[in-house]
Amino acid sequence: MSREILENQLKAWNNKPALRALYEQWFNEIKLNLTAGISVEIGCGISRLKEHIPDVVTVDIVELSWTNVVCDAHELPFRSGSIGNLILFDVLHHLSMPMMFFSEASRVLRPGGRMIIMEPYISPVSWLIYKFFHPEPIWMRCNPLDSAMVKSSNKPFDSNQAIPTLIFFRFLKQWKERFPDFILKTRKKLAFIAYPATGGFGGRQLLSDKLIILTHSMEKYLSFSACFTAFRVFVVIEKV
């Protein structure tokens, strides 16, 4: 099943130029926020980030021809303090025990190392789309700091899309208290119209490629509406 999902995602990537254009801009944003040291992509999936950061070490729980390391994100096979950057793109909300992952991240990151995270953001508008037109569930009533309540399954593609919003907004104070060696450097809501118009990896594209790309270029003027319309959150965390 995991391989079938990845094959479908790769097919959508190849068939949707507008989707690629949006992701490539986000990949560039990730690249701009890298710090010195080894960069590791957790949950590399179809591994398109490697085209922008060629020396990134690709990690996934699914063994694929482009995966450098096969492991569970909750138990990373890296030495303590050996990693400069941990990159997660649409991965955090799939983890069954996100707090266990953050503990591992704290262990493997060097001082000054970073986690760079791109995830779904649950706004009033995105909730409607994610809830009724996306196969992954949203459970806003859980406490992500309580591992017993987050996600009962550890299957790679099971998820709770609410996890990033809950951690970095509703439960941010408690998360900071639990991980005092992390500093939240960036927390940015983005992706308002262009991203849902692509249909993502599983839906039908709603606008032409040119119109989506034009719309995306104008979204900087819509930042005032982020709390109500954003579909994504971009987070940079630094270890002290």
Keywords:
single chain; 240 residues; Rossmann fold
Global morphology:
globular
Count of discrete domains: 1
- Using only CA atoms, what is the Rg? 17 Å
Number of helices: 10
Strand element count: 7
- Structural category is alpha/beta
CATH class annotation: Alpha Beta
Sheet with most strands: strand arrangement: 3-2-1-4-5-7-6
CATH-derived architecture? 3-Layer(aba) Sandwich
Describe the main β-sheet briefly.
Answer: 7 strands, mixed
CATH topology category name: Rossmann fold
Beta-strand content: 15-25%
> What would CATH call the homologous superfamily?
Vaccinia Virus protein VP39
Can you walk me through this structure?
- The chain is α/β, with parallel strands linked by helices.
- The protein has a single domain (2-239), classed as 3-Layer(aba) Sandwich (Rossmann fold).
- Helix content is 37%, strand content 19%.
- It has ten helices and seven strands.
- The chain has helices spanning 2-15, 17-32, 98-108, 124-133, 147-150, 163-170, 172-178, 194-198, 209-218, 226-229, and strands at 39-42, 57-60, 69-70, 83-89, 109-120, 182-190, 232-239.
- A seven-stranded mixed β-sheet has the order 3-2-1-4-5-7-6.
- The termini are far apart.
- The mean pLDDT is 93.
